[in-house]
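hey so u asked for the seq, here:
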Amino acid sequence: MEVCVDSIQSAQAAADGGVDRLEVCSALALGGLTPTNGLLKTIRTNLGSLPLFAMIRPRPGDFCYSQLEIQQMINEIEEIKANQLADGFVLGVLKMDGTIDVDNCDRLVKTCHPLQVTFHRAFDVCCDPFVALDDIIAIGFHRILTSGQQTNAENGIEVIKMLMDKAGDKIILMPGRGIGVMNLETVLRELKPKEFHSSASMGHNSSMEYRKDTVSMGKEGNEYDWTVCDAKRVKCMIEIADRFQV
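ran it, structure tokens below
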């Protein structure tokens, strides 16, 4: 089980629940962006040997990047590697026509070497997932995080099945997006994946007693509410997964 986290609070909860790996981001509400080295270092220092994969995504929005943004991504990878702050990376780049940007992905994967690299859910907005699958395998990615190009992985089960059949043992297809306690059994029964991905999150309300409700920092909705990983949900999902090991 891989859990995506964007705070030390969520990372600690995921670890307490028994997670196998963390995908570390900033700004999960925006789909996940590159985390700070400070967050990676804090997790690394306090959570021991728990494997960490760092998201490399320079901004929210689409996945078609300028050459300056690609250079930024390369710089981020090199700095994280130099400081030994991650065990792998999560990234993806598309061209304007919705195909995989093979050249830039190849540059990034080579920069990540010898660490593992996941192609993230940019895959779910590419124009042809079956052509993209071949490109991603050829580049040398180790896994693809996907919802089967649907709003959640449960709805994308049929597409993910076809992708898994096509890929064979060449790459790991990791279902993710919208997987929780209520639908995990369905996803595991239908797909029998080697790995799965979840935020295992729930709403969290601030402990602040004094609140200035008339001021916003830019977040839609209540500034004093956010989501964090829940250790009990992680533990429950791992218990469900243990019953479906193949």
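The mean pLDDT is 93. The first helix runs from residue 8 to 17.
lmk if thats what u needed
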